[in-house]
Amino acid sequence: MFKGIRLWIVWLLSLGLGIYGTGLVYDAITKQHWVGLITGIPTLLLGIWMTGNILASAKIAYRRNKAQSMRS
Which of 4-8, 9-13, 61-65 has the lowest mean pLDDT? Predict the structure, then answer.
């Protein structure tokens, strides 16, 4: 149970990181502060990468649990 709660917390934090990175990139482009892209793009990509890995792990766990429940 704790692993599931921890997964949700990390997933929400990674979504927030992606949103924050998007805001940094948007701010850098609209105000033409190109130095902001140095921090914004890696932050955005880290949030996207973490979210994708968590969703892939959840999909694998769902399939594993579904296969185990079919055997029972």
Answer: 4-8
Q: Count the residues in the chain.
A: 72
Q: One-letter amino acid identity for 60?
A: I
Report DSSP letters for the chain, one per residue.
-HHHHHHHHHHHHHHHHHHHHHHHHHHHHHTT-TTHHHHHHHHHHHHHHHHHHHHHHHHHHHHHHHHHHHH-
> If 0-12 CB within 10 Å is exposed, 13-18 middle and 19+ buried, where does residue 10 land?
middle
50's CB contacts (< 8 A; 6+ apart) are 10, 14, 17, 18
